[in-house]
Design brief:
The chain has 20 helices and 25 strands. It is an alpha+beta fold. Among the domains are: 134 residues; 176 residues, no CATH class; 147 residues, Immunoglobulin-like (Sandwich), CATH 2.60.40; 88 residues, Immunoglobulin-like, CATH 2.60.40.4070. The strands form 8 sheets. A 4-stranded antiparallel β-sheet has the order 10-11-14-13. Strands 12, 15, 16 and 17 form a 4-stranded antiparallel β-sheet that branches. Strands 18, 19, 20 and 23 form a 4-stranded antiparallel β-sheet that branches. Strand 24 and strand 25 form a beta hairpin. Helix 3 runs antiparallel to helix 5, helix 6 runs antiparallel to helix 7 and helix 7 runs antiparallel to helix 8. The protein is elongated. The termini are far apart.
Length: 787
């Protein structure tokens, strides 16, 4: 017993020594030489005119600007959990390579993204109007504020990298909302209101002076693209007075995207230096307590040395490496500022992108593996690359500058047309009355590309960031290469030109809508195929549960609450039915009636009012759904059914059984309705045993066909060996095509190309099928109506 105790004492003593060493590590003094090097670098930079401290920056604003800021912020959500209007329409919907749809002339709008719950892309004008007008007073006040003066936001520069910028999301949403109001006003014929919103959206770009933070400038560039799209829509009216167009042109001529960009590097330099200082002052992890370290050493002895090594490395970094990082960061961002200063002087993007640090800005590389600064910067850089959309800060600025020049030139062209009733043959004709000098393409310094069309419109474009003339082709999602977010750089420049497009003709818009409808059809068809495959997998499992369900003392889930303002049973009873005093459970018990369509279709009658169900609720047959509360329960069967009205007013439910497996089923009905409080309520009646005799089960996608992909007949048989013949006939009984085959695995899938025996191709016409099944092993045969 003594030896183990002695070992324990030695181990404790050893751990105590290690703890003492670790505790002493953070007390090590900083490297005076490294600290002096930082101080000297800072002094030298100050002497050269470079700001190095956050105290050198003042983002405070005047009382007038703070009042304006408060008005603008009132347009945002009331709290951080609220969401602004998210279904902003697409204001630059392409209709070909060089034309776009004038959306305010259309019968409906297209959302930028599909929305839940119907996954719809269409946005009705009434829905759009209701959403936009919900915040009308705040937006009206914001328009007045925007038009009244300079826009700046009162911020605390001492936050450095952690500076809060809540106004950026608000500015983007306000820009989108003003664009929304422009197209709504144009659609409704309110030209004066459209002009106010148009000028206010322009002022958001012209009057906003962003703080020297990269993300703030990127948001301004993104908002410029939004304004570009909205102004294009507005200028398709061809009815603005020249004084209004001249005012709009003047506002855009005052916009400057480049001058303040170098200061972003200066603020970043001061922020990173402050980050290093804060890291040394308080962000070092405290060592574990004696008790924690003792337990660690007793149970995991190797962890002592790991902890010691980690803390030693961290202490060494904060003693020396952190100072070196700070000094190197000061010099790194000095170089970035100088690069930006040189770049913004370049007359064109083609000249600018040849300069260092423009297309592929270098990343800071620390000499130390344990550099916290390096890890933090790498994480932030990943997020910023997504914000830059595969380009660089200067690349995004160059695109915004080109859009500015296109807007100015397009306005001048509209002013020319207003005076001469047609557009000029060449851009020099705009000078000097409408433009002092035609603006060159910022990308290469050549004149902006311009040409007239036979119908009297024009196309105006820049060759884009890749500096390749694509003839005025707008970049599409299909043609654009995904941004390269690798560590080697920002990737290839976005392809395609930057285009002020032609307005799409009515014929072109109709072609786009037809293509969209076709794409939607294919999407729905493939989604149905996917659902069919899932059902195919689930139906045997569901079938295996039938006996268990019917053997269980299973009580129906009934709610005798109010339905349509009256007790459920009283309201649902069909007054014309002889059995009008039945209970709710009896009303909801399926009762099969023979119609002559068996076994392919089984009909069930319920002595409830068909009109009551149709007007206030929904009746649905369920199959083998014993555990509806489980998210892992199989789908509930009775796949294809329809509801109809019996002659006496009862509700009929018809179940097309060929889409469910043959054999025994547990069938019940579910009633769903909205109660008096607007909440969905449901109840389920008793389950009954129903036996279906169809010898095959077709998949759901067999019920429909696609005009290009053909008609699928996908079926499962109750035996492995089977023969089948499918006769396709028209709705009038005329023979179209016969398909036949065999299977040895109990399943067959036959696809008809929709070409009949007379070489006629079906193009959306409904047809019927008659299926003949033979099972050689059992000798059973059956002829039934197929999909």
């Amino acid at each position: 017993m003594k030896a183990p105790l002695a070992n324990l004492r030695w181990k404790i003593a050893e751990i105590s020594v290690v703890i003492a060493i670790i505790g002493a590590v953070p007390l090590s003094r900083a490297d005076n030489a490294a600290q002096k090097a930082v101080d000297e670098t800072r002094r030298n930079l100050h002497q050269q005119g470079f700001n190095t401290d956050l105290t050198n920056f003042d983002f405070s604003t005047s009382p007038e600007q703070r009042t304006r800021e408060a008005i603008l912020k009132s347009t945002g959500p009331a709290n951080r959990l609220s969401e602004p209007f998210v279904n902003h329409p697409n204001l630059m919907e392409a209709a070909g390579n060089d034309s776009a749809i004038v959306v305010w002339k259309q019968d409906f709008l297209k959302k930028q993204n599909r929305s839940w719950p119907d996954n719809s892309e269409e946005l009705a004008w009434e829905e759009f109007r209701e959403a936009i007008n919900a915040n009308q007073m705040q937006i009206d006040a914001a328009c007045t504020a925007v038009l009244s003066g300079l826009i700046r936001f009162n911020l605390n520069a001492s936050g450095g990298n952690r500076i809060l910028l809540p106004h950026l999301a608000m500015m983007k949403n306000l820009t989108q909302t003003l664009g929304d109001r422009i197209v709504l006003d144009l659609h409704d014929g309110n030209r004066d209101a459209a002009w106010t919103n148009l000028l206010a959206e322009t002022r958001l770009m012209a009057a906003w002076e962003p703080e020297p933070v990269e993300i703030s400038h990127l948001v301004r560039f993104a908002d410029t693209s939004l304004a570009f799209n909205a102004i294009w829509q507005a200028l398709q009216t061809n009815s603005w007075a020249d004084e209004r167009l001249a005012r709009l042109q003047q506002e855009w001529e005052s916009v400057d995207f480049f001058t303040n960009l170098p200061e972003t590097a200066a603020f970043k330099r001061a922020s990173m230096a402050a980050e290093c200082q804060q890291d040394r002052q308080g962000l070092v992890n405290s060592p574990p307590t004696f008790t924690e370290f003792l337990n660690m050493g007793l149970h995991f002895p190797p962890s002592i040395w790991s902890e010691l090594n980690y803390r030693w490395s961290q202490a060494n970094y904060h003693k020396h490496g952190s100072y070196e990082d700070e000094k190197d960061l000061l010099l790194f961002y000095r170089d970035r500022e100088l690069e930006l200063r040189n770049a913004v002087k370049a007359p064109t993007w083609s000249a600018m992108r040849q300069l260092p640090g423009v297309s592929n800005p270098p990343l800071f590389q620390s000499k130390y593996r344990h550099s916290r600064t390096q890890m933090m910067m790498a994480t932030r850089e990943i997020g910023m690359r997504f914000q830059r959309e595969g380009s660089s800060l200067l690349g995004r600025a160059a695109k915004a500058e080109v859009q500015r020049r296109l807007i100015i030139t397009a306005i001048a062209l509209e002013r020319y047309r207003g005076k001469h009733s047609s557009y000029p043959k060449a851009l020099p004709e705009l000078a000097p009355e409408f433009l002092k000098n035609p603006l060159p393409d910022f990308m290469d310094g050549q004149p902006l590309r311009y040409r007239l069309t036979e119908d009297g419109h024009f196309i105006l474009y820049s060759i884009g960031l890749d500096c390749v003339d694509d003839g005025g082709q707008m970049p599409s999602h299909e043609r654009q290469r995904p941004p390269d977010f690798g560590t080697e750089g920002m990737g290839a420049p976005p392809k395609g030109d930057i285009v002020w497009p032609l307005p799409a003709s009515t014929v072109a818009v109709q072609a786009v809508r037809r293509q969209e409808a076709r794409t939607e059809e294919l999407h729905n068809f493939r989604e149905q195929q996917r659902e069919s495959e899932e059902e195919w997998k689930q139906s045997p499992l569901r079938q295996s549960r039938i006996a268990q369900i019917l053997a269980t003392n299973w009580l129906p889930v009934l709610d005798d609450g109010f339905f349509g303002g009256r007790p459920a049973a009283e309201y649902l009873r069909n007054a014309a039915s002889a059995s009008n005093r039945l209970s709710l459970a009896e009303l909801m018990t399926p009762r099969q009636v023979l119609t002559g369509n068996e076994p392919e279709a089984l009909t069930f009658e319920f002595p409830v009012s068909y009109d009551a169900i149709t007007n206030h609720g929904f009746f649905l047959l369920l199959d083998a759904d014993m555990d509806p509360g489980s998210m892992f329960a199989p789908d509930n069967g009775a796949k294809i059914q329809e509801r109809s009205r019996a002659p006496n007013g009862d509700c009929l439910l018809v179940w097309h059984t060929i889409y469910d497996p043959p054999g025994q089923h547990a069938l019940q009905v579910e009633l769903t309705w909205d109660n008096a409080h607007g909440a969905e309520t449901w109840c389920r009646g008793p389950a009954i045993s129903v036996v279906t005799s169809n010898l095959c089960q077709f998949s759901l996608d067999s019920a429909n066909y696609d005009v290009e992909l053909g008609a699928t007949f996908h079926a499962r048989l109750p035996e492995a060996n089977g023969l089948y013949t499918i006769d396709c006939v028209s709705t009038t009984g005329e023979h179209l095509k016969t398909l036949s085959g065999s299977t040895t695995n109990g399943e067959f899938k036959k696809i008809w190309n929709l070409v009949d025996d007379h070489s006629h191709r079906l193009n959306g016409e409904t047809f019927n099928s008659i299926v003949h099944i033979t099972l050689p092993d059992s000798g059973r045969t059956q002829t039934l109506k197929g999909p």
